[in-house]
Amino acid sequence: MIDIQAIGPDDWKSWSELRLAALEEAPSAFGSQLADWVDAPEERWRERLSAPGAYQVIATIDGTPAGMAGGFPDDDHAELVSMWVAPAGRGKGVGNALMTAVEDWARGIGATVLKLSVVPGNDPAHNLYLRHGYVDTDEPGDLMADGVTRELVMLKHL
């Protein structure tokens, strides 16, 4: 059974373990790099989970951590960030559960648009987002660590 738990600064240890696993397993999927976080002090992890208005969740399957995602409010929309499903959780509905949780949060804060960014070539993630009704935009995404690749920005009207 998939369980989605909203977390905060006091859950920094659980979140840090998942985040480091994500950065190690999928280094090209995120704007951050493992080296940026591997030696981060507790205070930095707590600060990341203390952003005003943010929503962070961890997914577990039968008590085993299986994924994570976050939502951040922006001026005219909300943004889905830090989405990752552990290899053991893939194909089991974890991605769908995380997407639904963040979309429900975004609607709850009154957002009418939810945006996200995905690395070109990350077809499993891109396809998940398409299945959830997101569309590609022409908006330029952030530059990745390679200094060449830009993230693909997608959005969904809620």
TrEMBL record:
- Mind telling me which residue stretches traverse the membrane in this protein? none
What GO annotations for molecular function exist for this entry?
acyltransferase activity, transferring groups other than amino-acyl groups
Domain N-acetyltransferase, by residue range, is: 2-158
For the keyword Transit peptide, the answer is no
Cross-referenced Pfam families: Acetyltransf_1
Key words, A-Z: Acyltransferase, Transferase
Whether Hydrolase counts among this entry's keywords is: no
Q: Which InterPro entries match?
A: Acyl_CoA_acyltransferase, Bact_Acetyltransf, GNAT_dom
Q: What's the protein called, per UniProt?
A: GNAT family N-acetyltransferase
| Organism for this UniProt entry | Kribbella jiaozuonensis
